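name: query_chain
kind: protein
chains: 1
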Amino acid sequence: MRVIVVEFDKNWSLIFKEESGKIRDILGNECVDIFHIGSTSVPGLKAKPIIDIMPVVRDISKVDRLNHLFARLGYEPLGENGIPGRRYFRKGGDERTHQIHIFEELDTHNIDRHLALAAYLRCHPDVAHEYGLLKEGLALKFPNDIDGYSDGKDSFVKEMEQRALKWYLNGQAD
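structure:
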């Protein structure tokens, strides 16, 4: 997978909105809510142009029987893919365009950490700018090495996620 980081694109929210409607149709009554997460949800943040979508469902076990419907939309179902309790789907193969991270509504830890990070970055443009510069530099250093890119931002993201979660759970006051 080629690693490309681009300037923020205001169309990302429109792409999310369109795709989330299709996902909501598949999930039906199981769907509690759908959130735009990740870097493409943060205005001004440089990002890989991949829309991260987080549906929250009532019962995660019911999602597996919908894999064929996601496949019709071009998604590859990958099960938990390293995060217990998640259902992960990706679209676009090596030129990935969308990722879906489905969690059960009782999995507040994973839901909160995703929502917290995006909210934190939206409210802390200085941190978002620093993160964008890091990602841009890593993309130049590792243009054909997604693992190198991911490893290079791992400690920054983990530390930022901890700060974001604390901020988010304490009423979003820094």
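note: The longest strand covers residues 31-37.
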